[in-house]
Write the structure tokens for this entry.
Amino acid sequence: MPDFSRELLHHPGLVAGVDEAGRGPLAGPVVAAAVILRADDCPEGLNDSKQLTAKRRAELETQVKARALCWGIGVASVAEIDDLNILWATMLAMTRAVEALNADCAHVLVDGNRCPQWRWASTAVVEGDAKCLSIAAASILAKEERDRMMIAAAADHPHYGWESNKGYGSARHLAALREHGPTPLHRRSFAPVAQRLLL
């Protein structure tokens, strides 16, 4: 289970955790979240969002937003993903998430193996959402935010099953892509979409 040891390592000063959701899907934006937790008021049960049930994620999202010192959301659009590529669009979303915090942080812990090029001191933590409480909290906020976006988009584009697959390349999504073609929310730079555009 994640703990607070890496956050404490970088004190004094506020430490934010950052994670993203949506690097792999064929459709929709990439969303990042940044969270500065209170060491003395941390919700119990924080973990990598992929290890939690949908019900538990929703409960923890509410608790994090209510009890964290501050949190922020950053989004990079489909157009930015296609223009920059998914890696740099993810870095952009992370930067926007930290910029959205209403407190400046002394250090940022980033899930993954590299940090954005930004003004904050930062450390990349591989599998950070399973190791750091702040990153775990950010993973929950990012996933919940992006899932809501894709469920809302499913109402406008009902063929692709985004309410369940959230834009990932499920069998239903790929079948609909072949039958109906890409929507404005599809990532043109991703191979299954690009191949469809060539037909």
Remarks:
- The chain has eight helices and five strands.
- The two ends are 47 Å apart (CA to CA).
- The longest strand covers residues 15-21.
- Residues 31 and 145 are 7 Å apart (CA to CA).
